[in-house]
Write a structure and sequence with these properties.
By secondary structure, this protein is mostly helical. Helices cover 45% and strands 0% of the residues. Bound molecules: zinc ion.
Length: 177
């Protein structure tokens, strides 16, 4: 059975001109017309759930993806100047980590090259991530995503075991077994 759309509420061709942001180019207008024509009540409920979750978001929420250390740092940020103590190897490591494309894999290779050719032992990938997170106060947050990239399992989707769009299981069933 077809899901009801907003247009079902109006027998005539809907006129959205009063709610259209202005100005729009023709591509944007076509995209917005498409959104208005196909949006479902369920989509609006989902959007509202995300809006409410964001309005009430707190660092103390379960499932923020932040480590206890990161939350502690956000509550009580460092007040002193950060220093690398003129540690040239550490400066090199941070520069490599931040500047290399696809940095994880490249960083490991660069570290191996430095040990082999100049004997400089740089921090491991795990260590440099931790150091950069401590220096910057920014740490990675990992959230599961549908294998078909439909949605991220966050907010109202955080507790789901299957994708609400395509039904794909959240976790690889073979790996899980
Ligand atoms: Zn999906």
């Amino acid at each position: 059975m077809r899901q009801p759309t907003i247009e079902d509420a109006d027998e005539n061709e809907p006129d959205h001109s009063d709610v259209m942001p202005w100005p729009l180019d023709s591509d944007e207008e076509a995209l917005l017309e498409d959104v208005y024509a196909s949006v479902k009540q369920e989509d609006l409920r989902t959007s509202l759930s995300f809006i409410l979750a964001l309005q009430n978001a707190s660092l103390d929420d379960v499932g923020t993806g932040l480590s206890p250390d990161a939350i502690e740092r956000l509550h009580d940020p460092p007040q002193q100047w950060l220093s690398l103590n003129n540690d040239r190897a550490l400066c090199l490591a941070i520069r490599l980590y931040l500047e290399l494309n696809h940095s994880d894999e490249d960083y490991v290779k660069a570290c191996a090259a430095h040990i082999e050719y100049d004997g400089v032992e740089l921090p491991s990938l795990h260590q440099i991530k931790k150091i950069v997170a401590e220096l910057s106060g920014v740490e990675e947050m990992m959230h599961d995503m549908c294998m078909n990239t439909c949605v991220g399992f966050t907010g109202p989707f955080a507790g789901l075991q299957h994708c609400p769009e395509c039904g794909e299981a959240r976790y690889d069933q073979e790996t899980l077994a």
